[in-house]
């Protein structure tokens, strides 16, 4: 990935807090930065949802340059807070120069965020964006395995390595796709089989690395995507 540092600990920024919610009762406010839950540092929203699945939360918060601590106990339902979306500078971008890149074909003068060539496994997991795995670092692969971030949506381009490299515009970092896909598939031990949404020149769908987890009742989003990040979600 050419920008962003997914392993960097920065916390997550609270965008809004719903009145009379568990978060409001714990004293959280918009603008707070939650830097750790139950002692675990947060790198991003995925870490937040991963750790916020517990029933009892000890939050470490930064507000106005000072560190605060707060506790939340919730029996069920949402915490009642929304997180700020990542800014363009916090999103990992792709190292490729595909001949058909749709970003390069956009007209000029549109809003800046449309020109971000994102290649970020976190956006793939959270929003279904396609990623190429071209320069995904081993630490990030390990994180995907550890947190069971599935489904991910992979843009294959081509199965043959040299042809794929050419289609990607011959990026300096030549990450082989299939070994990574196979590694991710191996890390998923879904007893019901695995499927992955992939995109190639022929828009093929192939088997790879997708699990479906049933969320805990208090899963913060309720969506299958987020639910799969919650520790302890039932298989
Ligand atoms: S992977 Fe290719 S098409 Fe997608 S953003 Fe990067 S250069 Fe453009």
Describe this structure as you would to a colleague:
- The chain is an alpha+beta fold.
- It folds into two domains: 2-83, Pdz3 Domain; 88-234, no CATH class.
- It is 21% helix and 18% strand.
- It is built from seven helices and nine strands; from the N terminus they run E-H-E-E-H-E-E-E-H-E-H-E-H-H-E-H.
- Strands 1, 2, 3, 4, 5 and 6 form a six-stranded antiparallel beta sheet that branches.
- It is elongated, with a radius of gyration of 19 Å.
- The two termini are 31 Å apart.
- Mean pLDDT is 78; it is low at 2-7, 190-196 and 199-235.
- Iron/sulfur cluster (SF4) binds at residues 94, 96-98, 101-103, 117, 132.
- Iron/sulfur cluster binds next to loops.
What are the main properties of this structure?
disordered N terminus, 7 helices, binds iron/sulfur cluster, single chain, 235 residues, elongated, six-stranded antiparallel β-sheet
Radius of gyration: 19 Å
Largest sheet: 6 strands, antiparallel
| Beta-strand residue percentage | 15-25%
Kindly give the count of domains: 2
Average residue pLDDT: 78
Shape: elongated
> Count of helices?
7
Tell me the series of helices and strands, N- to C-terminal: EHEEHEEEHEHEHHEH
Poorly predicted ranges:
2-7, 190-196, 199-235
Oligomer: single chain
Task: Provide the helix percentage.
Answer: 10-25%
Ligands bound here? Answer: iron/sulfur cluster
Structural class: alpha+beta
Total E-strand runs: 9
| Amino-to-carboxy terminus distance | 31 Å
């Amino acid at each position: 990935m050419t920008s962003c540092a997914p392993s960097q600990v920065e916390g997550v920024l609270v965008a809004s807090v719903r009145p009379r919610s568990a978060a409001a009762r714990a004293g959280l406010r918009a603008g707070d930065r939650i830097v750790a839950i139950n002692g675990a540092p947060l790198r991003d929203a995925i870490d937040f949802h991963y750790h916020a699945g517990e029933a009892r939360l000890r939050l470490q918060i930064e507000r106005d340059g000072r560190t605060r601590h707060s506790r939340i106990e919730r029996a069920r339902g949402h915490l009642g807070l929304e997180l700020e979306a990542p800014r363009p500078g916090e999103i990992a971008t792709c190292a490729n120069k595909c001949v058909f890149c749709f970003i390069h074909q956009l007209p000029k003068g549109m809003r800046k965020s449309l020109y971000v060539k994102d290649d970020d496994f976190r956006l793939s997991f959270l929003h279904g964006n396609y990623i190429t795995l071209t320069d995904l670092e081993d630490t990030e692969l390990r994180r995907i395995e550890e947190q069971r971030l599935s489904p991910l949506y992979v843009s294959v381009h081509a199965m043959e390595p040299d042809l794929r490299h050419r289609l990607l515009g011959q990026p300096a970092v030549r990450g082989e796709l299939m070994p990574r896909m196979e590694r991710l598939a191996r890390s998923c031990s879904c007893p019901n089989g695995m499927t992955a949404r992939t995109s190639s020149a022929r828009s093929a769908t192939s088997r790879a690395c997708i699990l479906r987890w049933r969320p805990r009742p208090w899963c913060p989003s309720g969506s299958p995507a987020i639910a799969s990040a919650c520790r302890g979600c039932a298989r």
